[in-house]
Every structure is written in C-alpha cells, then in structure tokens.
Design a protein that fits this description.
Elements lengths: L2 H8 L3 H13 L8 H15 L4 H81 L1
Helix pairs in contact: 1-2, 3-4
Organism: Mesotoga infera
Protein name: Winged helix-turn-helix domain-containing protein
C-alpha cells in the first residue's frame, strides 16, 4: 500500500498521511504500510486535535489499536467458550431428563413389587418354617 492509497482509504490528506507514516516508522511502531495502518492513521487526528504531538498521537493510536485487537480476540474466545458451555449444558439437561425418567420408572417398579410382597411374605415365612422343621 502506498501513501496515496492510504490517504484515500483513511480520508486524510496525502501530506498528513506521509508525515504520520514517517513518525510511525521512525518510532518503530510499524514496519511497513499495510491495511492495519489505516485504522492507526485514522485515530491520530483525534489525538493531535486534543493537543498531543504527532509522536504522542502515534503511540496512543498504536496502543489503542493493539488493545482493541487483543480485546476483540479475547471476546471471540469467550464467546466460543460460552457457546461450548451452552451445548454441554443442553447435553447434560437431556441426560438429566433421561435419568429422571429412569428413576421414576424404577420407583414405580419398586412400589409394584412392594405391593405384591405383602401377599407373598406369608409364603416366604411358611417356606422358612418348612425348612426349619425339616432340619
């Protein structure tokens, strides 16, 4: 990307862009003029209009851009983690529902078994009595 393209993309005058890029390179804040520099150059007039020197504006614009990029990356990571946790939560809710259904079925079977054992308990005792008498 050249100064003319950067000027057109940023909406800032050619001479101003050339001056900004010169400072950015001299300060070691950028190595080359590329797409990333557009956002940095766009922020610099805000700082210079507030009384900062071009050098100070350059440093602030680069730090702000780096901070914005890292915050955006962190936000994306957190959104991915949230989506993953929501999927896991849905899976666990399904499993819990299945387990609750199984427990309810087992309770019904147990109640059915307990109601039938009242009639059969006498038989069990009778068998015990028979075993004891036979021994």
């Amino acid at each position: 990307m050249n100064f003319k393209e950067l000027s057109e993309a940023s909406g800032i005058k050619y001479e101003t862009v050339r001056n900004y890029v010169k400072v950015l390179i001299e300060e070691g804040l950028i190595d080359e003029v590329n797409e990333d520099v557009i956002q940095i150059v766009k922020k610099m007039p805000d700082y210079t209009s507030k009384g900062f020197t071009v050098v100070e504006a350059a440093h602030r614009a680069v730090v702000l851009e780096d901070t914005h990029t890292s915050v955006t990356e962190e936000l994306t990571e957190l959104q991915d983690k949230i989506a993953s946790l929501q999927e896991e939560n849905q899976r666990l809710e399904r499993e819990l529902g299945e387990e609750k259904a199984t427990v309810a079925e087992l309770k019904e079977r147990l109640e059915s078994f307990e109601s039938n054992t009242e009639n059969s308990s006498a038989i069990a005792v009778y068998k015990e009595d028979v075993k004891t008498a036979a021994d």
